Each structure stands twice: as structure tokens, then as C-alpha cells.
Amino acid sequence: MMDRSFHYLLMATAALFQRGVMARLAGTGLTAGQPKVLDYLGLHDGSVQKDIAAGCQIDPATLTGILNRMEEKGLIQRRMEQGNRRSFHIYLTKQGWLKQQEVRQTLEEMAQQVLAELSSKEQEQLMRHLLQVCAAMIDLEVLQ
Length: 144
Hints:
Layout: H1 6-24, H2 34-43, E1 47-48, H3 49-56, H4 60-72, E2 76-80, E3 88-92, H5 94-115, H6 120-143
Helix pairs in contact: 1-5, 2-5
């Protein structure tokens, strides 16, 4: 029987969704973490690394490795802006935008399938509650 505790359900849901996304993207050559970064950059192209790490909930050191591999694959490019050598801005390349669209479509299809059993009202409630949970966790993180 499945554990019904909050922490278990939250971790299991995230892990199952991630596993499903990666299974659907298996033929793309993307590795763990890369779909999340591509999705983030699709909305925030030209971000600096610390903002990507925060937006994707990825440790900055881990993100460095992810970005290095993405750059090697030609998905992103780092650019210095206004002569600031301390922080590079990360941009999707043409190939990166194509992968980002593939990732976005996969995420939307998964969400539709996962949420299909819920009414529109239930979906809205779920999203509102997830936002509240995220906000609460961010507040707790700041306090520590």
C-alpha cells in the first residue's frame, strides 16, 4: 500500500513525473536536468546562471556541469554582456530552441494525461494549492 504522508506523496509525484518525462525524451540525447533548464530558458532566455539555478531548483555547482554538457551539444551559448566578466548570460541556440519546443510539448502532454481525471475546477485548485506549498517551502528555506 502506498504511503499517504505529505512528504512521500510529494516526493513520489515529482519522481514519477520526472521519470515519465525522461522516458518520453529518451531518444533526444537529453540527460537529467537538461529538460528543466531548457524549459526555464524558453521563458527566460539570456538569464545568468544563478537565476537559472534558483528557477530550476538546481544546486549551482550541479548546474555548471549541466550547462557545460548543453554547450558541448550546441544547445546553449554563454555570452558576456556589457563587459561583465563575472557572470555570463545563457542563451538557447537554434538547436536549443528546437529541443526546448520538444521538451515543452512533452511536459504539456504529460500534464494533460496526468490531469485528465480531474475536472477543470479540481485542476485549478490543485495548481493553487501547489503554489501555496511552494511558497511555504520558499519561506521556510529563507528562515533557515
